[in-house]
Specification:
By secondary structure, the protein is mostly beta strands. It has a single domain, classed as 6 Propeller (Neuraminidase), CATH 2.120.10.30. The chain has no helices and 18 strands. The radius of gyration is 16 Å and the shape is globular.
């Protein structure tokens, strides 16, 4: 399975979502990074579609996220590890000993949040690598995404829900009765919620300048 991060553009896949961040957080405007679970590689694509291998030798990479300095973080569910890659591709281990890290997202303070699909938790990891439990009792966390107010959204696959967490960790149900939500992507600002149904599949989105996208699959 594949995960993709896109610069300046948005696209979704049947199984995974894409997280949009400002261009300044990327290695180059318009480049696309893809975690290829089958080959164990992270591929980089230019806007014209030219592909190069950014990193290889991984064991089932899953979630991808950039920090504010342009470093790329990749999670490996099978090894319980999160790796950090510099702009030039140098790899170091950022966090290990996790149950099954998948979705990744950074908050405004550069803390990394990881959705642990095996443990049913969300772990907060400081820039120094200190881990604390942010949320537990979840049912298959998928993708994570922050809004402009610092609220964290989590796609809870097996409960069919999207949960919203305040910066202090208070959880509310943002959307429910979905069919295994996995991918999320947020743009700039949230104003109101709209729910639509197309071909028997539910899609929840935020109106105006911020929208929450869900893959239909």
């Amino acid at each position: 399975m594949k995960r993709i991060i896109l610069l300046c553009l948005w696209r979704s896949m049947p199984a995974f979502g894409v997280l949009l961040l400002p261009v300044s957080m990327r290695a180059a405007a318009g480049d696309l990074f893809e975690a290829d679970g089958g080959s164990g590689a992270i591929n980089k694509f230019t806007p014209g579609g030219t592909k190069t291998v950014f990193a290889s030798g991984l064991n089932g990479p899953a979630g991808l996220a950039f920090d504010g300095s342009g470093n790329l973080f990749a999670s490996e569910i099978s090894t319980g590890t999160i790796y950090k890659f510099t702009r030039t591709g140098t790899k170091t281990t950022f966090a290990s000993g996790l149950s099954g890290p998948g979705g990744l997202a950074f908050d405004a303070a550069s803390n990394l949040f990881e959705g642990d699909s095996t443990g049913g938790t969300i772990t907060k990891i400081t820039p120094a690598g200190t881990k604390t439990n942010f949320a537990s009792g979840l049912n298959g966390p998928g993708e994570l995404a922050f809004d402009s107010s610092g609220n964290l959204f989590e796609a809870d696959q097996f409960s069919g829900s999207i949960y919203k967490f305040t910066p202090t960790g208070v959880r509310t149900t943002f959307a429910s009765l979905l069919q295994r939500p996995i991918g999320l992507a947020l743009t700039a600002r949230a104003i109101s919620l709209r729910r639509t149904e197309t071909a028997g599949r539910l899609t929840n989105s935020l109106l105006a300048e911020q929208k929450l996208f869900l893959p239909r699959g």
